[in-house]
Amino acid sequence: MSFDYSIFREHLTTQWIGHPLYTFDSLESTNTHLWELLHDGAQPGTAVLALQQQSGRGQWGRTWMSHPGGLYLSVAVAPQIPANESAQLTLCTALGIAQAFQSLEIPVGLKWPNDLLLQGKKLGGILTETTLQQGRIDRAIIGMGINWCNPIPDHSISLSEYEAEQNTSRIPSLEELAAIALEGIETGYDRWQKLGIEALLPDYLHLLWAINQNSQTVSLSSTLTLQFKGLSHLT
After folding, report:
1. Burial of 229 (0-12, 13-18, 19+ CB in 10 A)
2. How far is CA 12 from CA 5, 62, 179, 183, 202, in A?
3. Residue 106: strand, helix, or coil
4. What does the alpha-carbon distance between residue 166 and residue 186 come to, in Å, rounded to a whole number?
5. Taking Cα atoms as reference points, which of 68, 43, 46 lies closest to residue 56?
6. d(CA 162, CA 149)
7. Mean pLDDT, to the nearest integer, of 14-23?
8. Which residue among 85, 101, 177, 230 is least enclosed by CB atoms within 10 Å?
9. Residues whose CB falls within 8 Å of the CB of residue 68, separated by 6 or more in sequence, listed in order
10. Domains of the chain
11. Does residue 213 contact residue 107 with C-beta atoms inside 8 Å?
12. Is the dihedral of CA 205, 142, 119, 211 positive or negative?
């Protein structure tokens, strides 16, 4: 499998996210490599994509299986927000990606804190990593893995599997999937930066299917918290 940059550029509509995009056949981790690029002077919007990862990371330190055929992509941003608002970054990113799929009539939902769901099964996940400067998040990396046509574990789903069931082909290539994901990130992030987290919450809660515990309290800022009680399959 290879990545055709011309197809990707044909479908990319973002203004700054994914400019530039570095692609690799294989990396230990796209997040790790992007941190190295930032250390060497890369700017916000820089993205790294690998056709497979040897040591992909998931939430809570879990290993993210990264076989060829999936989308493994990381993006750098510079949010400049207090450290206690870090959850907002995952929220706006997940919402933007889910809405990008929804615009293609692919009914992707969300599971707090970082999963993308399709037909109640895991389609992908998001891992946000940050650095602090004087108590503020000065740089962050949004890493994601999305199942396209890669081997998947039980209780997961891939886009190719879903589209075969639906007899559709809305995302026929990995290049188009990468462009859609980057568009979702930019839209969600820019909307959050312009309007604030409160403006995003109604749309986010509408797409929220479940949480990973029976109840959970999430702090979004010093004055805003969300409390989930037994939340499951809202849509």
Report:
1. exposed
2. 10, 31, 5, 7, 28
3. coil
4. 28
5. 68
6. 10
7. 98
8. 230
9. 1, 51, 52, 150
10. 5-229 (3.30.930.10)
11. no
12. negative
- Dihedral sign for Cα atoms in the order 30, 32, 181, 113: positive
Q: How far is CA 79 from CA 99, 136, 137, 190, 221, in A?
A: 21, 9, 7, 10, 14
CA 235 to CA 69: how far, in whole Å?
29
158 exposed, middle or buried (CB, 10 Å; 0-12, 13-18, 19+)? buried
Cα(230)–Cα(235) distance, rounded to whole angstroms? 14
Q: What is the DSSP string of 40-73?
A: TTPPTT-EEEES-BSS-B-GGG-B----TTSEEE
What length is written for the chain?
235
Query: 126: which 2 tokens?
Result: 């998001």
Write the pLDDT tens digit of every residue in 109-141: 999 878 999 999 999 999 999 999 999 999 999
Read off the pLDDT of residues 54-80 as tens digits, 9 standing for 90 and up. Answer: 865 544 445 555 789 999 999 999 999
pLDDT at 196 over 60: yes
Q: Which phi and psi (to 5°) does residue 188 adopt?
A: -65, -45
**Distance in angstroms (rounded) separating the CA atoms of residues 151 and 142:** 23
- Which residue, among 37, 40, 219, 38, has the nearest Cα to 139 in the 3D structure? 38
* Mean pLDDT, rounded, of the chain: 90
Which is more confidently placed, 96 or 64?
96
| Among the listed residues 179, 219, 176, the one whose alpha carbon sits nearest the alpha carbon of residue 21 | 179
Q: Which amino acid is at 55?
A: S
The residue with tokens 């010093």 is 222
Residue 213 burial by Cβ neighbours in a 10 Å radius (0-12, 13-18, 19+): exposed
